[in-house]
Design a protein that fits this description.
Elements: E1 5-12, E2 18-23, E3 26-31, E4 41-43, E5 48-51, E6 53-58, H1 78-92, H2 96-110, E7 112-120, H3 128-139, E8 145-151, H4 162-171, E9 176-180, H5 189-203, E10 207-211, H6 215-232, E11 238-242, H7 251-264, E12 267-270, H8 281-286, E13 291-293, H9 310-320, H10 326-335, H11 338-344, E14 359-362, H12 367-373, E15 379-382, E16 385-389, E17 392-393
Parallel strand pairs: 1-4, 1-5, 6-7, 7-8, 8-9, 9-10, 10-11, 11-12, 12-13
Antiparallel strand pairs: 1-2, 2-3, 5-14, 14-15, 15-16, 16-17
């Protein structure tokens, strides 16, 4: 597959029009009037060129995309949704290999070039998700990079045998150790976090912990996470997803947490939730904290919402944070691009010479225009190869 490409008349992040020359899947030159005999040409026609969108938090293994409509009847609590979902996976045949490919390819059509997915690991379904997403990851490697988190969705300690399955998943190559609400789900914060950090130490993996716990409970769990980061020398190796406690109105509670997040280089993932307190993106970024975003579950048993469009997610993050000025909306866009790359430690990300040629060409006058308009006429390039046009990936979904 050719990985050389000359993109003409593109405006990187809304700047002046220029050409981008790509060789062997990397941007090698940015200038006007470039010539490269024999290299395929993509004329951007003055459109924006953006770095590839980054989906930093989703659950590829359990989407219902392509399976028809399923009524959403789960109870209001998180544990209700967890138990409801686990009971339906088998009867509905939510096959992780098939479903993950469907969602990933839809995301690619929108311009996503990197995905971090959490893989459910529990004693009912074992390593079904690990094996399914491994197949998808390999099949879709030419069009998207998929980073995996071993995730104890049903709890780590409350269901004996889960810890051993997590250990096996990491031994099979899963890249990140996951955790979940140490107080609210396992009701053993010390035991839960000791187990998560022990797996990280054993396998040399970073950590990404779901923390839905609100207010003082969430702050307590964060403090325990900070203690372990300091004790084990894991600065820069932990992401906390959701972190609703950071959206508490009490600045005396939140500001010391933000200071420690910055000190320990802990990344924060926010979806810009509509129904829960949300981490304050502008304050976090001003403190030097890596902030990323993701779709979370897309059309699954938890919720009927979501489509995998990270420009739409940037809009939702902007709305949740009351961003209105162009420079503020660009902060929301940052969480879905560079912020995701920084949180996931993606090397060679961007639009400068030397970066991997992962990018999306989209109509619009400015970045903010693209976020609020979200045009569907997009061209997606992965490592110098056009992999999607107009929302349709070159790889056919199962």
């Amino acid at each position: 597959m050719a990985t050389d490409l000359l993109i003409r008349n593109a405006r990187p992040l809304g700047g002046p029009a220029t050409d981008l020359l790509i060789r062997s899947g990397r941007i090698v030159e940015r200038a006007t009037g470039l010539s490269a005999p024999g290299v395929p040409i993509e004329d951007a026609g003055g459109k924006l060129v953006l770095p590839g969108l980054v989906e930093a938090h989703t659950h590829l293994d359990k989407t219902l995309l392509g399976m028809g409509w399923h009524p959403h009847g789960a109870g209001p609590r998180i544990i209700d949704k967890i138990d409801h979902e686990r009971a339906l996976k088998g009867p509905l045949d939510i096959d992780p290999a098939r479903q993950s490919a469907r969602q990933a390819l839809q995301s690619v059509g929108f311009g996503t070039t990197h995905i971090r997915t959490h893989l459910d690991i529990d004693t009912d379904y074992g390593l079904w998700a690990v094996e399914g997403i491994a197949a998808t990851r390999e099949r879709l490697r030419p069009v998207v990079d998929i980073d995996r988190v071993a995730f104890p969705q049903s709890g780590l300690l409350r269901r004996p045998g889960t810890l051993e399955l997590m250990d096996r998943a990491l031994a099979m190559g899963v890249e990140v150790v996951g955790g979940l609400d140490p107080c609210a789900i396992d009701r053993d914060p010390k035991g839960h976090l000791d187990a998560v950090f022990a797996l990280s130490q054993k396998h040399g993996r970073p950590i990404d912990i779901h923390l839905h716990e609100p207010g003082e409970m969430g702050a307590f769990s964060l403090e325990l996470i900070f203690e372990r980061i300091r004790a084990l020398g894991l600065r820069g190796q932990v992401t906390v997803s959701h972190a609703f406690c950071l959206g508490a109105p009490d600045r005396d509670l939140v500001d010391p947490l933000i200071a420690q997040l910055a000190e320990l280089d802990v990344a924060i993932m926010t979806t810009g939730p509509a129904s829960r307190p949300a981490p304050p993106v502008a304050r976090l970024l001003a403190a030097g904290i890596r902030v990323c975003s993701g779709s979370d579950g897309i059309r699954d048993t938890w919720s009927p919402y979501g489509n995998g469009d990270m420009l739409e997610r940037a809009m939702l993050v902007g709305l949740r944070n009351n961003f209105r000025r162009d420079e503020d909306v660009e902060l929301a866009f940052h969480t879905c691009t560079r912020g995701g790359a920084d949180a996931m430690r993606i090397a060679g990300y961007g639009l400068e010479p030397g970066c991997a040629a992962d990018l999306v060409i989209v109509p619009g006058e400015t970045v903010t225009d693209a976020v609020v308009s979200r045009p569907t006429d997009r061209v997606v390039v992965k490592r110098g190869v056009v992999v999607a046009r107009g929302g349709v990936c070159t790889v056919v979904a199962p």
